[in-house]
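User: I want to check something. If I give you two sequences, will you return the structure for each one separately, not as a complex?

Assistant: Yes, each is folded on its own. Here is the first sequence with its structure:
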Amino acid sequence: MSETSILLKAYYEALYERLEACKELLARRIDDLLAAEVAARGFDDFDDEKYAAYREACLAFVEERIEAYNPIGIQYLYDRERAKSAFELELQLDWYDSRAEFAALVQAARDKAEPKVTPERLRGLAQELMRQAGAFPDKSIISAYEAKPGLKKLPDYIVARTIEEIIV
């Protein structure tokens, strides 16, 4: 495994640990951001039942994102054939395009990667990468939503904004 791949693995592990430890804070911020976004956009017919359903969707998306960074499952990202197929499928299913963000993340990891790095130094580099790049694919989600807001995109957007606030 290359130094870049090792750093990316550490980055995903650091994201997993941070988000797992902050689940309650994430849930509270989701409440605040969801209420603010619904009010700001003036989405029609957004009653208490609809709000509760969107809140539940956001909380489920948080769990999904945390598991996506799980070090036990992340190993599948490093099987090149599976990773390429999964990434292409994800691009077809997602309403946002994260290819440029992923390329920037990989380049940032490449720039920071060091040979024969100690575990402590690797953890520090992963934290630096997280602060610099955010949590992939949040930037893509946020910019696509802000360019063209919509109810179907709202849970992804709220989760992305919440995660970005938590990891900084």
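And separately, the second sequence with its own structure:
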Amino acid sequence: MAKRQWKFCIIGGLAVMRWGEARVTQDVDFTLITGFGNEEDFIEPLLDHFSGRIADAASFALANRVLLLQTSSEIPFDISLGALPYEEKIIENATLFSFDDNTVVPTCSADDLFIMKLFAAREKDWRDAEGIVLRQGKKLNLSYISSYLGQLCSATDRPEILDVARRILEGKP
């Protein structure tokens, strides 16, 4: 993706290792900006280079906006096909992070990771969000988080997520 100068970043468990409390993750998650209607221009080259994890990974990706791949050493990774303005903002906010001497990749910001974890609304994601607050604390941009998380919750009619976010940010279980 970097060689092709595509707009992308790591989200999910590896980003949690950077911004939150380390935990075991079994795959690597990316967001890749493809836009709407151009997805095949990204899916085909990726499938030329990596194996799909499921039969007809391209059709699944077009239907579900996530491409399920694996490396030659069978490490699974998911590529979310981004197109929304907020997804573009996530990429814009991403910064490079060195996981080791040979691996430097863009990861989403702590603020965006917190938003995505809250919006995913799974127990494990809320634990990840708590870890982000523990490690990042006052470095988090609360107005940014409130604005974007509020927009996502309004668009999907899930205002209860905002209550969970407030509790986590206030350090309440």
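Because they were folded independently, the notes below concern the second chain alone. Residues 133 and 169 are 6 Å apart (CA to CA). The chain has one domain: 8-169.
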